[in-house]
Design brief:
Strand order of the largest sheet: 1-8-5-4-2-3
Radius of gyration: 20 Å
Strand content: 5-15%
Shape: globular
Structural class: alpha/beta
Amino acid sequence: MNNFTFYSPTEFVFGKDTEQKTGELCKRYGASRIMIVYGGGSVVKSGLLDRVKKSLEDEGLEYCELSGVKPNPVDSKVYEGIGLAREYRPDFLLPVGGGSVIDTAKAIAVGYFYEGDFWDFYCGKASPQQALPVGVVLTIPAAGSEGSGNTVITNTETKVKAGLRQPHLLRPKFAVMNPALTVTLPEWQTASGITDMMAHILERYLSNTEDVQIGDRMAEGMLLAIMETAPRVIADPNDYEARANIMWCGTIAHNDTCSLGRQEDWNSHAMEHEISAEYDVTHGAGLAVIFPAFLDYAADHNPHKVAQLGYRVLGVDKTDNISADAHKAADALRTWFHDVIHMPVTFAQLGIPHPDLPLLNDRLHRLKGDIMPGYMQLDHDATMEIYRRALGE
């Protein structure tokens, strides 16, 4: 196990009607002037936004609003938010929504104090030193941004989708998590979120670091819990207990507890980011296409953790051919995504029958370098082969 430092100060307030505590929580963490960030649609129609505002008003807190955040959050909304923040001068940001809303708020939080272009942080030209505090009211279990210091934004001009990881600055002060708020999510959004959280676990699980049994068993346990609970959510969207388990899994999947002391991978995420940046597809759906293809490639080049996943999680019987067993694991995950939670598992099923693979691959390596280190050392040919396997031909 490698040395590590773990910092996770977020207060999680979980359960029914917890959104009514939002004002109290904001006040506890020093807020007096708040910018609420949200997308629109469901948080307005459901009355959630009004309940959150009332909780702020009951505590005597002032607020302004930034609405219109879209899935696959983009830099233009961040620039708009930074401009509004500098006019209103909030001392706290309150995203109400899912990962796109939270990631947008985090980008505003670091951009607010910076004299240059906030994108400097995402392209590696600068490192943030200061950020506005953030609290979260979560409505979509998927990205895990409510418990992480991570944020991902797409540059609309270059179509580069890049992330920033700042646990000391950007982990939310609190996260309000009411599973009842998720019962109206469409099946597609629920399933995409499930895929995303499973991918977050697998990015950590696929590691060459030895003697990380605690992390491995945590990851396997979460995957088993998700795979047991997900069919219940798909069959009955109003199953509160199933929703609660999925919501908490989404948080634990991405708050780093199962990645401590180990090398992580994240190359599947990087490959999917190129797809969703270019074609504006749902991130989780893109991961359902890429991850089985990635595992299938790994079965030929570094099969040991893929085979272990098969034995411990995916029901693969152990044989004396570890590569063949790893291929069975990749097939089992692909089948589960498609048959159980009805995700696309090929580019064509994703709605991209003729993807421009050279464009995706060239842009990937311009961003990540000629060799992408991780569970495998991936050069241009390797990532192109994974993209090809995702065609399903």
